[in-house]
What does this fold into?
Amino acid sequence: MRKGQELIDFCRWADTILDAEETGEHYLLASGLHSRIHIQLSRAFGNFTVGHAIAGVAFEEIDRLGLAGNFNTILTAAIGAIPLGVALQYAFLRMHKIPPDLAYAEKSGEGYALNRFTLGSSNAVLIVDDIHTTGKTLNALYEVCLWQGAYVVGEMAVINRGAMPLMALEKPASGRFKFSLADYPLADNEWNKDQCPYCLRRVPLVKDGGRIEVF
Ligand SMILES: [Zn+2]
It folds into this structure.
């Protein structure tokens, strides 16, 4: 059984994992690839019960890894991962732990910038993102922390859709600690436009809930 299979099943049940075989549409990813699967985890937090459950799983894993008392700040990327950060604060409260502060970075050119928050040497940070694909967001948020002089305790993605477990991607000398709650590798379900079997079958292509092309 894959890591976090129960969480994946739960996300499917909560309609946050869309599958072309069920929806009759396939999906354009930020990477430009066409995909059979679209994970809309940010939408899970629109439903209080679902978001509450996901944040509870996140807290359990953070606690299991011994990190729960080691950081005082959560850093996320605006906009999609902000509700995850807030839900995680409430999860701490439910477990009678002092909730960490929350800061979010916003897209700025190729990277991210802290426009509304300041971090410094007093901040021990857990970086949190919803979906890990290439690692671009986690890397950008890590750099934000370095620039601000904040200490990064760890980096968490709820779902890792890359082929490798996050821990395996760490360079031992880097001092970085990455983990995911669930692994859901999708390499066999993503294609360039020219090789896409769904385009071949004229299945509509969708980006972020909007239909953009009909073949
Ligand atoms: Zn396609």
